[in-house]
Amino acid sequence: MKNMKLIKKIIISIICIVLVFAVAGTSIALYKLDMNKYERTATPSGFSVFTQPQKKLINDADFYVSTKGSDDNDGSFSAPFKTIKKASGAVEKLVSSGTKKYEKITVAVMAGEYAESDILFDEKGSGSEGTPVTYTAYGDGEVIVNGGMTLKSEDFENVSGEAAERLNKDVVNNVKILDLSKYNLTVDDYGKLKSVGGFTTEKYYDGAAEVTACELFFNNSRMELAKYPNEGNLKEGEVLDKSDCYEPNPPGPTDETWLERRNQRGGTFVMDDETYNRVKSWKTTENVWVFGYFFWDWADMSTPIAKIDDSQKSLTTKYCSKYGFREGGIYHFYNVLEELDAPGEYYIDRENNILYFYPPEDLKESDVMLSVTDKNIFTFSEKAQYISINGITIQGTRGNAVGMLGQNCSLTNCNIKNAAGVGVEMKGMNNTIQSCEINAIGKDGIILESGDRETFTYGNNVVDNNSIHDYGEVQKSAVAAVTLVGIGNKISHNEIYNAPQTAIHFTGNENIIEYNNIHDVVLQSSDAGAIYTGFNYSTYGNVVRYNCIYNIGSGDFTPNAIYFDDNTSGQTAYGNVLINIPGYAFLIGGGRDNKVTDNLIINAQKGIDYDDRAYDGYHNDGWYGKNVKETDGRLWVLMNEAKALNEKWNHKYEGIDRMHQDYSREDDEGFAVNPSNSTVTGNVIIKKDGKIGDVADSVYKYSNVSGNFTYKLKNAEGFFENMKNGDFSFAENSQLLKDNPNLKEISFEKVGRY
Question: Which DSSP helix (H) or strand (E) runs through 578?
Answer without folding.
Answer: strand 577-589
